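Holo prediction. Input below; ligand is zinc ion.
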Amino acid sequence: MNLFILTGAGVSAESGLGVFRGPGAALWKRYDPMQLATPQAFARDPALVHDFYNARRRNLIGASPNAAHVALARLEAGLAQRGGAVTLVTQNIDDLHERAGSRRVIHMHGELLKARCGSCGMVVDCRNDLAIDSRCGCAGALRPHVVWFGETPLYMDQIYAALDVADLFVAVGTSGAVYPAAGFVREARAKGLRCCEINLEPSENAAEFDDRRYGPASEITPSWVQEILEQ
Ligand code: BV8
Ligand code: ZN
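Structure of the complex:
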């Protein structure tokens, strides 16, 4: 069995990382991600955008994966033993899937613990604060290695190739509000895949799913994984 799993901010909510919409979004008291996660905001006020990502990076380093991340890693290992595979595409920029043990993770919106040079494009690990004078070896300015609104998501060819060979599409903790990620379920349906949604509440494209399970990801995901592994 080849699974295509799409995760969003809801899978990391119980690890204390902010969500952008729905219950728990109040975490963003000081910053509006819709305003700050843009190249225009970075050009206009790079120090403020660095503050936004520095605060999230510090929070992430102090956070831990939750039972949903652990269950998805267990699913990948369990299916691999039977010759199956999981492709985990995440909209999240945290590393909690990797820390929980997932090995095949595609970060289509980039990674908070990496920085990218605006001049030469080199991507480097980044666990400390960035500032407007943070420089690459080539002297170019460093920015978060994150896909902002209006920028092109990463690994799209790889993502569509994984969709092509999948038998089952599962979305965990995503509101279905951000494209092109929110359009993947429609691509999956067009290929005849069964589609399952695990979320706190119905997402904006809930109608596209055959199987819908609602509740905290840390409770729903482990029981769903157990069902899959027992099949
Ligand atoms: C692009 C990185 C062209 C930054 C992010 C009009 C129509 C259609 C599209 C557009 C449009 N106008 C503009 C666009 C394009 C735009 C877009 O979709 N805008 C939206 C707002 C309308 N998209 C883009 O600009 C993208 N680029 O389109 O380029 C292109 C297209 C195709 C091919 C090539 C080129 C780039 C978008 C990337 C933006 N960057 N993140 C950062 O993190 O700071 S997106 C940002 O939103 C995060 O990544 C977040 O993950 C993501 C998506 O949101 P979700 O993950 O779903 O999170 P959200 O908070 O929304 O929902 C959380 C869900 O969890 C909720 O449902 C909640 O109920 C649930 N939940 C909460 N707690 C729990 C839970 N579930 C389970 N358990 C819990 N405990
Ligand atoms: Zn450089």
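The pocket of zinc ion (ligand 2) is lined by residues 117, 119-120, 122, 136, 138, 140 (CB under 6 Å). That is the main takeaway for now.
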